[in-house]
Amino acid sequence: MVKYHKTFYLLHGIAFLLALSTALPAYVQSSFLEGFMTLQMLSLYLTVIMALTLIMLIIYPHIINKLTNLHSQLLVTIISIVALLILGVSKQPIVILILFAIQYISLNLLFINSDIALENISDDAHTGVIRGRHLTIINIGWLISPLLMGLIISLGSYQLVYFIAGLIMILNLFVVYLKRDLLSDHKEYKVHKMVNLLKSLYHKKNLRKIFSLSFVLNFFYCLMVLYTPIYLNQNIGLEWGSISLIFTVMLLPFVLFGLPAGKIADKWLGEKEIIIAGIILMFITTGMIFFLNSNSVILWALLLFIGRTGAAIFEAMQETYFFKHVNGEDLDLINLFRDLRPMAWLIGTGLSVIILHYYPVQYIFIFLAIILFLSLYPALTIKDTK
Predict the structure, then answer these.
(1) Which has the closest alpha carbon to 233: 306, 158, 166, 139?
(2) What is the pLDDT of residue 3?
(3) In whole angstroms, what is the distance from residue 386 CA to residue 380 CA?
(4) Dihedral of the alpha carbons of 315, 317, 320, 324, in degrees to the nearest 10
(5) What is the reported pTM?
(6) Distance between CA 272 and CA 265 in Å, rounded?
(7) How far apart are CA 266 and CA 62, in angstroms?
């Protein structure tokens, strides 16, 4: 591990910049796009984007094998920069909708490059600590973003948020290019046909369960990220300044608890018990959103903080568990694991179209709470690593 300490720091720094540029527009994307379409049309539009993201993630391993992990990273980073900068200044709705899709897809692809580079220099004995630290760095980017987003909106508009995200990605590009010697790789990664990969996964019971749990976590993120800001702003009546403060408090657990959870999993408990605890916290607090009509910033911050505490320890454990079962050459498995995010968002946005057709937006949270409750079964039956 000492041999690669400089590369670890470099990868953490790159992940931080990538997370910040991804997180900045994340909580305003639904409100921004609502300026061009209804809430139901927004859900449908995002469903299409998730389908395209999923297709690109399936293709991406072949691109990585063709170009190498480093060169594919450089190419996609440039594409994301161009999309974000133009998105930040364009006034044409069709251009905005196309570029939104491009920047969203490209930023998702870059997390695959980050995963591969980190896994190439990691060892199983320290997976919990390594992944916990990496997630903590990423989540610091997410923690900073709501306050920064609130400040940017107060000075300009939603589009300025995207332009600033593009500037951050320019810095990311410079870092990757200047340190390309540390990131260079010429590995031939394992890429199997999707049918064979799914058959292989089907016979690995515990890996299959962690995939299902990761899907639920990403499903939770999808519905909460898309509909919590809208609900707080339009239904509860909170201003964006208050919402940005609430979200900053809400995201603190990802910085505070991810790394300690990883250390506990490595040394004592394993991942199973922590995942179960996380799901229970998420289930209870998500269900409570439906019943809370208060406009108290403190109450909302506390409720969302507790819910995200569950999500933070859940996320750290599902990452640890998965990466203890793969290595850096398992590109197809790593990629499939990351495919779960757009897959969950695809299904989440699609189902939300149906729910919103019949019910007000707050029913999204009851539906999500039921899904979280059902996820306790795979969590309770998964084989622990301890």
Answers:
(1) 158
(2) 46
(3) 14
(4) -130
(5) 0.77
(6) 9
(7) 33
Query: What CA–CA distance (Å, rounded) separates 28 from 33?
Result: 8
CA dist 253 and 258 (Å) reads: 7
Contacts of 370 (CB under 8 A, 6+ apart): none
Take residue 270 and report the two structure tokens written for it.
């394993």
Which DSSP category does 324 fall into? T
Tell me the three state secondary structure of residue 307.
helix
The string of pLDDT tens digits covering residues 112-125 is: 888 888 877 766 66
pLDDT tens digits for range 325-374: 776 566 677 778 878 888 898 898 888 888 988 888 899 999 999 999 99
Among 314, 293, 296, 190, which Cα is nearest to 249's? Answer: 296
> Do 210 and 385 contact (CB within 8 A), yes or no?
no
- Residues in CB range of 257: below 8 A, 6 or more apart: 309, 312, 313, 316
| Cβ–Cβ under 8 Å, residues 317 and 273 | no
Locate 299 and state its tokens. 């109450």
Residue in this structure with the two tokens 């990311």, named with its chain if needed: 172
> What domains are there in the chain, each with its CATH number?
2-381 (1.20.1250.20)
Q: Which of 47, 12, 379, 18 is nearest to 215 (CA)?
A: 379
